[in-house]
Specification:
It catalyses: Exonucleolytic cleavage that removes extra residues from the 3'-terminus of tRNA to produce 5'-mononucleotides. The chain is α/β, with parallel strands linked by helices and 377 residues long. Helices cover 49% and strands 10% of the residues. It has 3 domains: 2-188, Nucleotidyltransferase, domain 5; 193-286, HRDC domain (DNA polymerase, domain 1, Orthogonal Bundle), CATH 1.10.150.80; 299-376, HRDC domain (DNA polymerase, domain 1), CATH 1.10.150.
């Protein structure tokens, strides 16, 4: 069903609220805007599947009320971008949620399983991808496009039922819900513009002093892009931003000598120069530190983390929980140095592997090789 009127949306949302869970997906575009532009919302209940057209319905309040109804679980696959666009466009963050991509990692699948692979695994259906490059903002939509879009939720609600059954059998429903909790927090989708510099390409080549400049200049770029609702690269590319950071221009002519600044108006140049000046004058104790990628650790610590990681992989193999969901090598190094602050000391991770890590590090348990495979000793 294609829903293009407020009344049809209201009627469907009333029917949907009779169920404990519904599947939700979105189609959006963000190539020409700062915020994603919501073009279609697909929803499936166990009884019906619909495509809601937000580009032609002026009042989306019934959809907002459905998304906020905490008696109905909203099932997504890889939900972060869907949640972001719903929050920005509809004004509410869907709650409670269930993410099948996250859940699959607790059922023996890889951490970032695709939707197609998920449907194949849990529904036995192979989905076509003929409309994957569709411009969802163009109207009218064809029947084929609508059918393709609805496939993204029609099978999702079926997969959810099967996955919940398996999770209950394994006693892992609470594990998944714990892992999903941060994704239901609005702060997860409201980015701090003063952290935007960390996503600039090749920012790791900067000194701490230069990072101070990059923080202010990237924050200025975020503000301009959001105000105009255009992609940040249309204000200034990463390459231009990085060149400005490293040259630290003071005067307009110095600024203009850098390639990629010619499209900026006088007010933008003045604003960018002020941002650069703020960053350059930042006290040393307030300069940012880059978040490490792979941390540098001593050979001794590396050997210990190798042993711990072997245990993690063994537990992952036996439990069917993806290794990368349990812990990374950096997580293990942090565990050695600050175990009291580690996620491995809490919740399902401690239940699954935390106590075994303690036994391994205290010498109460070991690992050996038997028939070419690692075994507990």
């Amino acid at each position: 069903m294609y829903i293009s009127t407020h009344q049809a949306l209201l009627d469907f949302c009333q029917r949907a609220r009779e169920f404990d869970a519904i599947a939700v997906d979105t189609e959006f575009l963000r190539e020409r805007t700062f915020h994603p532009r919501l073009c279609l919302v697909q929803i499936a209940t166990p009884a019906e599947s619909v495509a809601v057209d937000p580009l032609v319905i002026d009042d989306l309040s019934p959809l907002a009320e459905l998304m906020a109804d905490e008696s109905v679980t909203k099932v997504f696959h890889a939900c972060s971008q869907d949640m972001e666009v719903m929050l920005h466009t509809v004004g509410v963050l869907p709650r409670p949620i269930f993410d099948t991509q996250v859940a699959a990692a607790f059922l023996g699948e890889r951490q970032q399983i695709s939707y197609g692979a998920l449907v194949q695994t849990f529904c036995g259906v192979s989905l076509p991808k003929t409309e994957s490059l569709t411009d969802w903002s163009r109207r009218p939509l064809t029947d084929k496009q609508i059918e393709y879009a609805i496939d993204d939720v029609k099978y999702l609600i079926v997969a959810y039922t099967e996955m919940m059954s398996r999770l209950r059998e394994l006693g892992r429903v609470d594990w998944v819900l714990d892992e999903l909790r941060p994704l239901a927090d609005e702060s997860h989708y409201r980015a701090d513009r003063h952290e935007a510099f960390r996503k600039v390409k090749r920012i790791n080549s900067c000194s701490r002093h230069q990072l101070g400049i990059a923080r202010e200049l990237a924050a200025w770029r975020e503000d301009r892009a959001e105000r105009r609702n255009i992609p940040r690269k249309w204000v200034m590319s990463d390459d231009t931003l990085l060149a400005l950071v490293k040259r630290n221009p003071v005067r307009v002519e110095e600024f203009r000598s850098i390639r990629g600044t010619d499209q900026l108006g006088e007010r933008d140049v003045d604003g960018a120069l002020m941002a650069i000046k703020r960053g350059a004058s930042c006290p040393h104790d307030r300069l940012p530190l880059m978040v490490r990628g792979h941390r540098q650790i001593s050979p001794e610590l590396e050997s210990v983390t190798d042993l711990m990681y072997a245990l993690i992989r063994l537990v992952a193999e036996r439990s069917g929980v993806a290794t990368s969901v349990i812990a990374s090598r950096d997580d293990l190094a942090d565990y050695i140095e600050h175990p009291e602050q580690s996620p491995l000391r809490e919740g399902w991770r401690f239940e699954l592997v935390g106590s075994r890590l303690d036994d391994l590090l205290s010498g109460n348990m070991g690992l050996t090789v038997k028939d070419g495979k690692i075994e507990l000793l």
